[in-house]
Amino acid sequence: MSVTAGGMFLYFVLGLLAAAVSYGLPLAMGSSLTVTAAVFTSVLVPSLMTICLVKVNVKAFAIFWVSLALMQNFFSGVWAARTATVIPEYVTEQKTVSILCACLVSIESLFVFLAKRPRLAAALGVYALALILALGSLESSALAYGRNFTVPVLLILLFAALTENWDLRERLRLVTAIAQLVTLLLAAGLGMEVMVGTDTWRSWLRADINGALNSLSDATSIFGLQLTRYAGFVIEPTNAGYIAASAIMISVATWAIGRKKDVSIPNPIFIAVPAAICLIASGAKSGFLMLFIATLSAVIFRSVRSIAVGMVLAWVSAFVVVLGYVAKVKGPSTAAEVFANPLAILGGDSTTFHLAGLVSGIKSTITDPLGAGLGVGGNFSRVKTESWEVWIGSGSESAWGVLSYQLGLLGLLSFAFLLIVLGRHLGTVSAALICAWSSAALFAEAIFGPQVAGALAISVALLAVPPNSDHSVADSRFSLGKSTK
After folding, report:
1. Is residue 189 situated within a structural domain?
2. Tens digit of pLDDT for each residue in 70-106?
3. What's the whole-number mean pLDDT along residues 6-15?
4. Would you say 428 and 302 are in contact if contact means Cβ atoms under 8 Å apart?
5. Which residues share a beta bridge with 225?
6. Contact 335, 326 (CB under 8 A)
7. What would the pLDDT profile of 320-378 be if each residue is shown by its tens digit?
8. 70 and 147: one domain?
9. Residue-range definition of the domain harbouring residue 434
10. Per-residue pLDDT tens for 148-157?
11. Which residues of 187-220 are buried (b: 16+ CB within 10 A; e: fewer)?
């Protein structure tokens, strides 16, 4: 079903309104509801919306879910400000409720999709086993990391299954619409925050009563230069930067495919330029790393026939780049100490914490190959009084580091293998995007979160190889070359 520009704009409006209502109801009615009733409302409302949209219009569901994830802090903050209510975690987890509900509703499509890809099903099964073995409790930190370690993968699988038989043009139009929506919201939010000032903006949105936002920094250092950071509707600057980098990658990849396959796609400059401004304003260094690895992956996949080899090379390249940056900031001898004593490099630049967390987490798979358990360690379980040794030693500040520390050697290897298998099944363009996301995750714990990974994960699925189609994306090297006609 083709969607006009006007029709897609209507999707934007309805998706944002639905997300605002979904977050608003449990908060607006909070004073008149018991906790149990409020939790029930927070589950029921997004579930009903999800079921209806998945069954009726997958495009509308995609827009709704991206709106739900991207605007969670803004909408919940607005409603909390009106009711003077602390923002409960069950309200901001509606994005997780929605994707789980969508998977249950689409379980038949998922089974059919995986049944035709036994290697992917096997890789997913091993990774699921690692998660189950690591599950020792249902504490909030365990649930939070369980969400981060599963939702991006579920998004890819769900949208790959639901759109498997779509025409390439419809896929590219939806991906373009997602990039446009993300960029529009980032730019609008940035403009509003700059106009009123960050302190006023955060105060209006009750950021200091939101447990996930009250300790975040509004400044960062790059090569010793102190920069102010802005996040707009996202409120968290680092997450805003990752999302902006994702929008740039999505728009360029979509345009490259459209140009190669003679599908009319808007010039990516209209997305890339405002998204780049938002990225710079966020001061998120890992966002720039994402763009670098995406570019490098495109080059690698043009010269290396094996997607598996290409992905490993991209991960190694990301590590070398960050190690080189730390060597520049701290000195080569200090940077080299990260392998023997990760804590020795800490200080002077936030990147040192990310690198130390990655190495600490991976080293833990040698001393404790079974892992510490899901939810043990990492930023979500951090106690403010604990030492850097305990905090960074658990892999904190690195998504891969925390995953390694919690899930152990089986979790680390099965996750890496699952990403490689996904890349091989979805094609070179999707593999390049997976590389960029997972490479940045080496040095960013938050990048596995649904808010950050959501739009990119959906795009990874939509840019996969259409079955039985002449418009195959991955049957050729990733390039910005001319049309094939």
Report:
1. yes
2. 999 999 888 887 766 678 888 889 999 999 999 999 9
3. 85
4. no
5. 222
6. yes
7. 999 999 999 899 988 889 999 999 999 878 889 999 999 999 999 999 999 999 999 99
8. no
9. 106-462
10. 999 999 999 9
11. bebbeebeeeebeebbeebbbeebebbeebeeeb
pTM score of the predicted model: 0.92
Q: Following DSSP, what letter does each residue of 362-417 receive, concatenated?
A: HHHHHH-TT-S-TTSSSGGG--TTS-HHHHHHTTTT-HHHHHHHHHHHHHHHHHHH
| Residues 446 and 147 sit within 8 Å (Cβ to Cβ) | no
Average pLDDT of the chain?
Answer: 88
**Residue 353 in contact with residue 389, Cβ under 8 Å?**
no
**Total domain count, the chain:** 2
* 4 part of a folded domain: yes
Cα(212)–Cα(143) distance, rounded to whole angstroms?
14
Amino acid found at 394:
S
CA distance linking residue 368 with residue 404, whole number of Å: 10
> Which residues lie across from 219 on neighbouring strands?
228
Q: Say if residue 139's pLDDT is above 80.
A: yes
What are the angstrom distances between the C-alpha of 337 and each of 286, 342, 358? 22, 7, 14
Q: What are 197's two structure tokens?
A: 């000032």
> Are residues 360 and 236 both part of a single domain?
yes
Rounded Cα gap, residues 30 and 47, in angstroms: 19
Q: Is residue 289 part of a domain?
A: yes
Q: Is there a single domain that holds both residue 175 and residue 187?
A: yes
At CB < 8 A and 24+ separation, what contacts does 291-297 make?
291/245, 291/248, 291/249, 291/436, 292/318, 292/321, 293/317, 293/318, 293/435, 293/436, 293/439, 293/440, 294/249, 294/252, 294/253, 294/432, 294/433, 294/435, 294/436, 297/431, 297/432, 297/435, 297/436, 297/478
3-state secondary structure of 228: strand
Are 167 and 231 within one domain?
A: yes
142-146, 220-224, 259-263, 354-358 — which is least confidently predicted?
220-224
Q: For residues 394 and 319, state if they share a domain.
A: yes
